[in-house]
UniProtKB/TrEMBL annotation:
One of its GO terms (molecular function) is symporter activity. It is found in: Membrane. Keywords: Membrane, Sugar transport, Symport, Transmembrane, Transmembrane helix, Transport. The keyword Signal does not apply. This is Major facilitator superfamily (MFS) profile domain-containing protein. It comes from the Eukaryota. The keyword Membrane applies. The chain crosses the membrane at residues 20-40, 83-101, 113-131, 137-159, 171-192, 204-224, 285-309, 321-343, 350-372, 384-405, 426-446, 452-473. Residues 27-477 form the Major facilitator superfamily (MFS) profile domain.
Length: 521
């Protein structure tokens, strides 16, 4: 694999020489398999819950509804709290695990944290594949959730820190690309295992999650630790050696010195989570929280869930759920590739704004068609309208896949300074999992209540988040992470008012710091 060379410039005009080396590409691919595991977990749950044998064993009440010819409801037949708990328990466990993952990421490094995630994934896979009752199934999902918490904490940081500035966005989105590949892989597996006679196909679906779990664990053993993490933990010579390897040049002194200085400043901060609450960190914190909430309120879950009924209407027959999942999964993967190619060329804001228009339009069209043509107990949709709805579904999924899907993770990982980066990533994962849990636990009930109106609900959120991007989200394309404060935040029309240099001294958490004293144990 040839290495391509380029030089990146900081805000101060200092050029960091860097090549796109094979070791960087391979390390990022190996690390991004954490996304493959996450995506498989997300995709496989939707498939197995549509398998009659799985429902009959673990959710007999739902199974009874799906087999009852007198219960005619497109919107309410899967409305069951235990079924929702099967999905949402993963995110709740991930939420709790991310607090521990923040500590391991900071004290042990990015690489050991990814290794811990791999072990949790393997344990969860074993329990799920061998599940005999609902309790064992949920415990397995909890272990998988712990793996998600650790992987989502470490992998985006790893990718942001090991990649050269110019291609940081594209390499970071490898994580999201692997999420979409994992979902597609799970959908294909579900399509095959659903045809297995004897009622054990769902075990194979859950057990094959062991493939990405082993890949992540093996990858974590093989990759290099990031120079940022090594320097942060005082291993300067090792950090310099790794930086030389990943940049493919001996001229790494300017970047090394900047990393050392950033690490020195980070060590002065005794309480990174408390420091996040300081005024000068409000811009990064506010944007991080907003992006995670908005990502969940795009309505991607609504589209993904309702797609089987829509595709069935068009004429895919009894395998509609699995056919539609595979088609949408393929669109998801291809569109994420668009993001990898364009994110470091057209920028983050442009992708988000274009996708906002595309998602808003597609959801409004779907809501209108379903509201006019489909009732709660009928899916009698004219074939022409059905094809239009299917096109709108793919339009929405493609827009999400090249915007809010990957960028919801990329932007937070590249905006926090080193002294609060690990804590900031914890907040990113935490908020994302909180609202993913809320949506997973409440969505089927919302669908039963709002019916087609759920698409109007989410489209209004798409409008709100697009306005947020226009006025409050700065562009971070091709800007070195350590230069974000001077280049981005101090020059933004709104956020610059929070960049008071006079807060530098008390932010270290030393004696006399009013914030530290207030929160001291």
């Amino acid at each position: 694999m040839p290495a391509g060379g380029f030089a990146t410039a900081t805000a101060g005009g200092v050029k960091f020489e860097a090549k796109i080396t094979p070791i960087v590409i391979l390390s990022c691919i190996m690390a991004a398999t954490g996304g493959l595991m996450f995506g498989y977990d997300v995709g496989v749950s939707g498939g197995v819950t549509s398998m009659p044998d799985f429902l009959e064993k673990f959710f007999p009440e739902v199974y009874g509804k799906t087999q009852d010819p007198n219960l005619n409801s497109n919107y309410c037949k899967y409305d069951n709290q235990n079924l929702q708990l099967f999905t949402s328990s993963l995110y709740l466990a991930g939420l709790i695990a991310t607090f521990f993952a923040s500590w391991t990421t900071r004290r042990l490094g990015r690489k050991p944290t990814m290794l811990i995630a791999g072990f949790f994934f393997i344990l969860g896979v074993v329990l799920n594949a061998a599940a005999q009752d609902l309790a064992m199934l949920i415990i397995g999902r909890i272990f998988l959730g712990c793996g998600v918490g650790f992987a989502n904490q470490a992998v985006p940081l790893f990718l942001s820190e090991i990649a050269p500035t110019r291609i940081r966005g594209g390499l970071n989105i490898l994580f999201q690309l692997n999420v979409t590949v994992g979902i597609l892989f799970a959908n294909l597996v579900n399509y095959g295992t659903a045809k297995i006679k004897g009622g054990w196909g769902w075990r194979l679906s859950l057990g094959l999650a062991g493939i990405p779990a082993v890949l992540l664990t093996g990858g974590a053993l093989l990759v290099l630790e990031t120079p940022n993490s090594l320097i942060e933990r005082g291993r300067l010579d090792e950090g310099k050696s790794v930086l030389r390897k990943i940049r493919g040049t001996d001229n790494i002194e300017p970047e090394f010195l900047e990393l050392v200085e950033a690490s020195r400043m980070a060590k002065e901060v005794k309480h990174p989570f408390r420091n996040l609450l300081r005024r000068r960190n409000w811009p990064q914190l506010s944007i991080t929280i907003a992006l995670q909430i908005f990502q969940q309120f795009t309505g991607i879950n609504a589209i993904m869930f309702y797609a089987p009924v829509l595709f069935d209407t068009v004429g895919f027959g009894s395998d509609a759920a699995l056919y539609s999942a595979v088609i949408i999964g393929a669109v998801n993967v291809l569109s994420t590739c668009v993001s990898i190619y364009s994110v470091d060329k057209v920028g983050r804001r442009m992708l988000l704004l274009e996708a906002g228009v595309q998602m808003f339009f597609s959801q409004v069209v779907i809501a209108i068609i379903l509201g006019v043509k489909v009732t709660d107990d009928s899916n009698d949709l004219h074939r022409g309208y059905g094809i239009l709805v299917v096109v709108m579904v793919c339009t929405f999924v493609s827009a999400f896949a090249w915007s809010w899907g990957p960028l919801g993770w990329l932007i937070p990982s590249e905006t926090f300074p080193l002294e609060t980066r690990s804590a900031g990533q914890s907040v990113t994962v935490c908020v994302n999992l909180i609202f993913t849990f809320v949506m997973a636990q409440a969505f089927l009930s919302m669908l039963c209540t709002l019916k087609f109106g759920i698409f109007l609900f989410f489209s209004s959120w798409v409008l709100i988040m697009s306005i947020f991007v226009v006025f409050l989200l700065p562009e971070t394309k091709n800007i070195p992470i350590e230069e974000m404060t001077d280049t981005v935040w101090k020059k933004h029309w709104f956020w610059k008012r929070f960049m008071d240099d006079k807060e530098e001294v008390p932010a270290t958490g030393t004696k006399g710091d009013p914030l530290t004293d207030k929160w001291a144990c």
